[in-house]
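Weekly structure sync, notes
Attendees: PL (lead), two postdocs, one rotation student
Agenda item 3: pending single-chain targets
PL asked that the sequence for the first pending target be pasted directly into the notes so everyone works from the same version. It is reproduced below exactly as submitted, 181 residues in total.
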Amino acid sequence: MTNSPESSPGFDPDSAEPQPPGSLAALIGRILAEIDELQFQSFSNDDALDLGLLLVELGRQRSHPIAVDITKGEQVLFHAALAGATPDNERWIRAQQRTAVRYEVPSLLVGLRARAAGGRIEDNAWFDQQVFAAHGGAFPIYVRGTGAVATVTVSGLPQKADHELVVEALSEILGHTTPPG
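Predicted structure, written out during the meeting:
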C-alpha cells in the first residue's frame, strides 16, 4: 500500500489567498498527465470492486469522512460511505460525477480550466449548480483506445484532496509506483 501523498504545493482551488505564479497552469498540466497515464486496458465490475475497496481501505486507514462511488452509465458498481460522511456527500458525488461525464475529464480540471480563462464556470448562466459541480473528486475511468467508460468519485475532503485520493488509488490499481505528474 502506498503512503498518502502530501497535498501537493502550488495552486489551491479552495484558497482565496493569492496563488504562486504558474501554479494553476502546473496543476492543470499535472491533471492532463494523470488522464494520459491512468488508463485501464479494460474495466470490469471486478475492477470497480477492487478500486472501491482500495479507496475504502485508504479512507479507513486515514480516518477520512468520505463517500466513494463508482458508476458506469446509470449503473452503480460500487458505493460506500465511511464514518463521518453525510448526506451532502451524496449530492456532491452526483454533481461531480455529472460534470466528469459531461466533459469527459476530472471534475477538478473543469473548474481549473475556467479559472485559467479568467473566471469561474459557476458564474456562467448555463452552468446549473443544482446539477453540476466543478470541484475535485470525480475522475473518469478511461480505457485506452476507448475513452471514458465510468467514473470514480470521492467526496468528503477538500476538493484537491478528494482528487488526489482518487489518483493515488488509480495509480495503485494500475500498478504505478508513483502517481503521475
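Discussion points:
- Residues 1-8 have pLDDT under 50 and may be disordered.
- The first strand starts at residue 39 and ends at 40.
Action: rotation student to compare against the earlier draft before next sync.
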